[in-house]
Amino acid sequence: QVQLVESGGGLVQAGGSLRLSCAGSGRTFSGYAMSWFRQVPGKEREIVAARGWSGGLYYTDSVKGRFTISRDYAKHTAYLQMNSLKPEDTAVYYCAAGNYVSDYGLDRRGSYQYWGQGTQVTVSS
User: Which of 25, 38, 110, 117 is most buried as measured by Cβ atoms within 10 A of its Cβ?
Assistant: First the structure.
């Protein structure tokens, strides 16, 4: 099993930066694809960024150039660095992990078997 614990959410002004972290545990965590999704009330959870276990990357168009996904294999931790934050980035952010995820499937919710509890990010104007 893989367990994910998120941290780093909070309140930030527009234009500011925030870094989310996702600490994982489990025997095969380092071999999993990692991703970040976000969700606002009344809308479906949507992909933000993902990094495959073999290095494939995916970013949704709205965050390209502003967000960066990374991971520290030794620490079993994934990160989402968020720069130039906008009010529309306000959402609950979720970390997710999946095994046997192809690069083509990095942006699909169904690719991920394990999910964190979510952390609130609020960007004020």
Answer: 38
Place of tokens 């499937």: 105
In 3D, which of 103, 112, 122 has the Cα closest to residue 22? Answer: 112
Asked if 46 and 52 count as a contact pair (C-beta separation under 8 A), the reply is: no
What is the pLDDT at residue 7? Answer: 96
Q: How many CB atoms lie within 10 A of CB 104?
A: 11
Whole-angstrom distance, CA of residue 96 vs CA of residue 10: 19
Tokens of 93: 């952010």
Closest CA to 67 of 84, 55, 52: 84
d(CA 18, CA 121): 9
In total, the chain counts a number of residues equal to 125
Measure the CA–CA gap between 9 and 91, rounded to whole angstroms.
10
Q: What token pair was written down for 70?
A: 């990374």
Q: What is the Cα–Cα distance from 34 to 13, expressed in whole angstroms? A: 27
Rounded distance, CA 123 to CA 91, Å? 9
Instruction: State the pLDDT at residue 74.
Output: 82
